């Protein structure tokens, strides 16, 4: 059955980037191993793909293969220029925004990006597009909104042994309601610990 999943690399004290969107050492684990993970070319992605440790590569390959659609907010869309019209994972991207970019269809004709005003509608349409596969939601403000709205089934945290002290929080600035999680599935890798929590029904 399709699941809505928040997934992101995060510092041990809960930050996904600094206040300037810098990730510092958070992404080092993507490049410290022997396994090749190809990615669609774009100026915001490594030209030769990722090379994580074996445990990380196996987990990411399985996770990415099972994602059918991705959500993103307008801020991330602007920061990445919509990945140049090519989804990072999945076959469709649903951008939650009140400001659709007017020139997008001309710059990227046929790109599978859809601009939706409301989060709940975006999740519903993403689930439909994903079919039996999962829907990926980024951590940060949009992920926090999705948890508060009861739309998330699983949280994947890729915890890096570093303390940021300040920055952009995993759930943004939202006050998350008390939510019980199942015991995590844990994959220990090189300079990152992958933890996956299913949310218990409220």
From TrEMBL:
Pfam families cross-referenced by the UniProt entry: RibD_C
Record Gene3D superfamilies: Dihydrofolate Reductase, subunit A (3.40.430.10)
Domain Bacterial bifunctional deaminase-reductase C-terminal: 119-188
InterPro entries per UniProt: DHFR-like_dom_sf, RibDG_C
Protein name (Swiss-Prot/TrEMBL): Dihydrofolate reductase family protein
Organism: Streptosporangium longisporum
């Amino acid at each position: 059955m399709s699941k809505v999943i928040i997934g992101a690399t995060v510092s041990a004290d809960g930050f996904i980037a600094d206040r300037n969107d810098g990730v510092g050492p958070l992404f080092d684990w993507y490049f410290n191993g022997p396994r090749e993970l190809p990615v669609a070319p774009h100026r915001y992605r490594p030209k030769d793909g990722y090379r994580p440790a074996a445990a990380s590569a196996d987990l990411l390959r399985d996770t990415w293969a099972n994602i059918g659609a991705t959500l993103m907010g307008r801020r991330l869309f602007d920061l990445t220029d919509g990945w140049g019209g090519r989804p990072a994972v999945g076959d469709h991207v649903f951008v939650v925004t009140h400001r659709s970019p007017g020139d997008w269809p001309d710059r990227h004709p046929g790109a599978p990006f859809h601009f939706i005003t409301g989060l709940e509608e975006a999740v519903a349409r993403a689930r439909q597009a994903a079919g039996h596969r999962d829907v990926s939601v980024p951590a940060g403000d949009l992920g926090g909104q999705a948890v508060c709205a009861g739309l998330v089934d699983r949280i994947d945290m890729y915890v890096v042994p570093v303390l940021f002290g300040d920055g952009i929080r995993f759930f943004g600035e939202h006050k998350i309601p008390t939510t019980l999680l199942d015991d995590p599935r844990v994959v220990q890798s090189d300079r990152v610990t992958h933890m996956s929590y299913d949310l218990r029904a409220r």
